Amino acid sequence: MAIEYLAWDVFVLEERLRRLERRVERRRLRDAQNPFELPREEFFSLFRLPQEATMNLVNLLRAELQCERIIGLSPEIKVLVAIRFYAQGCYQRSVGNQQQFNISQPSTSRCLHAVTEAINRRLLRRWVKFPMTAIDRQQAREKFATAPQPFAGAIGAIDCTFVHILAPSEHEEAFVNHHGRHSLNVQAIVDPDLKILNINPRYPGARNDAYIWSTSPIRRAMEFHYNRGERRTWLIGDAGYPLEPWLLTPLANFPEDTRQYQYTQQLFKARSRVLMYEPAFAAKIINACAVLHNMRVQLRLNDEDDEQLAPIAHPEENDVDPMDQDEEYRRGPRALAQRIQQQIMRERFPNFRDAEE
């Protein structure tokens, strides 16, 4: 009997050794197929970042991604798997099965979760920042004033976009948008280079743009600075947002020869996207993509076919009397915002007529 037990223990140990050898062999295979050795153009087409920027990203996240097991995936592979998923937007299995990785779907899923969480913890606040100080806002105004499509006084363009997700198990109906699809309604603010200044992926698709803006900390900050006397600082948005002294929106259905029409033509709308995850993790993926997007903007890696900001009006200095503004603001933010709009249109489009009320 003792011999039989010993033989069984030997068999178990041999089987464990064989499994370990197979894992080590797979690791060697992955190392032998090092994606960083791909030609620069091929690497960029797969991962949307050059090798140098990708390795910098790995080094920023290495402390959180380093695996203690010798057979574990390296931080380099984990990051490559994740950013390939972000770039491709495909299912995890096809990402993991690509010849550069040769890893299972569960391993792909673990990579995606680990890298996404690490980016949210370590990089989100560093790479996605709204201009909160007076100096930062002044720099943002200067950037808009000297942009190819300038808008003096603006510090950001705001819009919401649907990111489609899997139907959640709880409160499913709250995530159904007006197109009948499950989604998050993600609010983003960008500068003239399309750098993301703020991202808010916390709201379900049934919430409209105006509601998300009404609860936004950015709205409170803009109103706070306005009440402190900062009167020539705006965000620009589409018709889904309320007109406010710190948020300018388009005017619809005016003849082409009017200032109202010309003004409206200078504002823009953003576009929609897709994702297939439950809400909480989908929001983190969106944050991670925002970080990587800003890295690409800093490296001037925007795709040639990316949509550009539509032309935006260029108002001159606003000479509305501050005392008049205070009085009008007490009568309602919309009334004051309408007066600001009219001032902008008169200054920017002097050769056009005002539309009849």
TrEMBL record:
Q: Does the keyword Mitochondrion apply?
A: no
Any one Gene Ontology MF annotation carried by this entry is: metal ion binding
Q: Which GO terms describe its cellular component?
A: nucleus
Q: What is its main location?
A: nucleus
**Domain annotation DDE Tnp4: ranges:** 158-272
Among Pfam families, the record links this protein to: DDE_Tnp_4
* Family label: Belongs to the HARBI1 family.
Q: What's the protein name? A: DDE Tnp4 domain-containing protein
Q: Which organism is it from?
A: Euphydryas editha (Edith's checkerspot)
Give the organism's phylogenetic lineage. Answer: Eukaryota, Metazoa, Ecdysozoa, Arthropoda, Hexapoda
